[in-house]
Amino acid sequence: DTGVSQDPRHKITKRGQNVTFRCDPISEHNRLYWYRQTLGQGPEFLTYFQNEAQLEKSRLLSDRFSAERPKGSFSTLEIQRTEQGDSAMYLCASSQPGDYGYTFGSGTRLTVV
Amino acid sequence: KQEVTQIPAALSVPEGENLVLNCSFTDSAIYNLQWFRQDPGKGLTSLLLIQSSQREQTSGRLNASLDKSSGRSTLYIAASQPGDSATYLCAVHLNTGKLIFGQGTTLQVKP
Predict the structure, then answer these.
(1) Half-sphere exposure of A6 (CA within 13 A, CB side)
(2) CB contact under 8 A, A42 and B4
């Protein structure tokens, strides 16, 4: 297992288009998290899953955002009707419950033009 | 509401210096604390995890301490090298599973 994988690495889209990102966590990790990071800021929590259950969503996650983890393995984050303010790095992380740290992926850089 | 602050926001030092990065948090009821490194345009690399029952962790030239009662953590980097240039992020683990991040300290080590 090579760690947390995210795809694509970069995405440029026109305003109003829908985009979908994928995250593959470390296989034995049952928790999966999505964060968003804008330039010069620390990452902000969006949502997280334990297995296939979505346990918490941030108020940052507007109605245009949806996340799924259908079989408790990989996860997708979809943004509908993208806006320029959605331009950011979208980071995925996974962990095991207990005193374990998070492992982050390399992120997906979204640019909305 | 938990807030995490990192000071300084930016730091430039000559190669070989020892340096300290500071992180403070407003609510001492944290689970763990983790330090990350981020290179420009890249994801986060975990450096050190301090579990709730621990007071410090060491890895190579890095040492991180945690004082929950005062709401502080420090990351000490010994004998800094140009390859240490990056942004260093402090994050507290809440018992709900979320991480709350500081804004980071951007370090430049000059040869």
Answers:
(1) 27
(2) yes
Answer yes or no: are the C-beta atoms of A30 and A17 closer than 8 Å.
no
B62 interfacial to chain A (CB closer than 8 Å): no
The partner residue sitting opposite A101, judged by closest CB among B4, B46, B102, is B46
Contact A107 B36 (CB under 8 A): no
* Count of beta carbons in the 10 Å neighbourhood of residue A95: 22
Three-state SS across chain B? CCCEEEECCEEEEECCCCEEEEEEECCCCCCEEEEEEECCCCCEEEEEEECCCCCEEEECCEEEEEECCCCEEEEEECCCCHHHCEEEEEEEECCCCCEEECCCEEEEEEC
Amino acid identity, residue A30?
N
- How remote is the C-alpha of A63 from its chain's centroid? 15
The predicted structure's pLDDT at residue A20: 98
For B40-85, how does the pLDDT look when each residue is reduced to its tens digit (9 = 90+)?
988 999 999 998 889 999 999 999 999 999 999 999 999 999 999 9
Contact present, B73 and B54 (Cβ < 8 Å): no
Name which of B32, B44, B103 is nearest A104 (Cβ-Cβ).
B44
pLDDT given at position B97: 79
Q: Which of A35-44, A90-99, B64-73, B101-110 has the lowest mean pLDDT?
A: A90-99
